[in-house]
Write a structure and sequence with these properties.
By secondary structure, this protein is an alpha/beta fold. It is built from ten helices and 20 strands.
Length: 355
């Protein structure tokens, strides 16, 4: 199994990359938006396909890149069903297992730091690792004074769902502020000053009540954004989802509502523009075979909706644009056939912009 531990220095957040060496399918755990180019480059360098982005909880100290990775690479976003977010593709329940190649990823519900924390226990057949987010950290734990936090609940989560794992199980936390990278279940049982074997629940609750910590600087920005998988509130692409063949699609109704805010690209042949389906007003015409050349001049962060006659060619072009680093791309489902069926009146053919 490929395994990499990455860090965002500003928030001291660890991001984890795990991948099956045979299938080359990968997952990212707790990615940070400011580090998306680093993460995408690493996936590309290792020739890995990102299948899932797993969040341990709704973070308050940084904004996730999960939603952008979904739009850009087709990965499915994963969060606890108890987190109260509507954006993820997969809302995991306690005990639910996700299989990625030869990896078995078990989600364990471990609330306390927040009401929707999850610990992911990953087993590749040779080693077991637990990714605990902020629930259990190295010689410490996450705070419990906001986001439905509760000290007693966290104590129970740690002792019932994490420290019941074999002592040799490696623990990888969401943060560490002293440069430490990992610990084990056995170490934390013996050495954790808040949660170790010398502390009972009442003592732990008293410790947590006396911390008096300042609120995270990004709290008011990060939490709302992370409830939307890191996508800005005014971004219509929050609702864009990927189909089973991993092509992001939008409906013709979505295009009619948002067409003023996106770049519309018609990838049909020039001769089709004068046919019975006509053309779409304000759309850029770039025949499919010209896209690899014309796209070099396009802004990779501008939202792009590609369409053709029925959706086949536009789906292939959407995949190409995503592979080339465009962050917000979709194919119009059903193409001009669907557009014309629902059009209030025929639209006269427009001259080709190029090709």
């Amino acid at each position: 199994m490929y395994f990499r531990q990455l860090i965002d220095r500003e928030s001291s957040t660890y991001t984890y990359l795990l991948a099956d060496e045979e299938t080359r399918e990968a997952v990212l755990i707790d990615p940070v938006r400011e580090q998306i180019e680093r993460d995408v480059a690493l996936l590309d360098e290792l020739d890995l396909t990102l299948r899932y982005v797993l969040e341990t909880h709704v973070h308050a100290d940084h904004i996730t890149s999960a939603g952008v990775l979904r739009q850009r690479l087709g990965a499915k976003t994963v969060l606890s069903a108890a987190a109260g977010a509507g954006c993820p593709d997969v809302l995991v329940e306690d005990g639910q297992v996700i299989a990625v190649g030869g990896m078995r990823i078990e989600a364990r519900h471990t609330p306390g730091h927040t009401g929707g924390c999850a610990t992911y226990v990953v087993d590749d057949g040779s080693a077991q690792r637990a990714f605990t987010g902020d629930t259990l950290m190295i010689r410490g734990c996450g705070r419990t004074d906001f986001q439905e936090g509760d000290a007693g609940t966290l104590y129970d989560s740690v002792w019932n769902k994490i420290l019941t794992l074999p002592d040799a199980t490696a623990i990888y936390p969401g943060h560490d502020y002293r440069g430490r990278t990992m610990t084990t279940v056995g170490e934390e049982k013996r050495l954790n000053p808040r949660l170790g074997q010398e502390r009972n629940k009442a003592e732990f609750i008293e410790i947590m009540a006396g911390l008096k910590l300042a609120m995270p600087k990004k709290l008011n920005v990060a939490v709302p954004a992370n409830l939307r998988c890191g996508i800005p509130a005014d971004d219509a692409w929050t609702a864009v989802r990927h189909t089973d063949d991993r092509v992001p699609e939008v409906s013709v109704d979505w295009v009619r509502e948002h067409r003023a805010d996106v770049m519309l690209v018609d990838v049909r042949r020039s001769t089709e523009l004068s046919g019975e389906l006509g053309s779409m007003e304000d759309a850029l015409h770039v025949p499919m075979d010209r896209v690899p050349y014309e796209m070099k001049a396009w802004d990779r962060d501008e939202p792009v909706v590609v369409f053709c006659r029925s959706g086949g060619r536009s789906g292939r072009v959407a995949k190409l644009l995503l592979q080339e680093g465009f962050t917000r791309v979709a194919s119009m489902r059903g193409g001009m056939l669907s557009w014309r069926v629902t059009a209030p009146r025929p639209v006269a053919p427009a001259p080709a912009a190029c090709g």
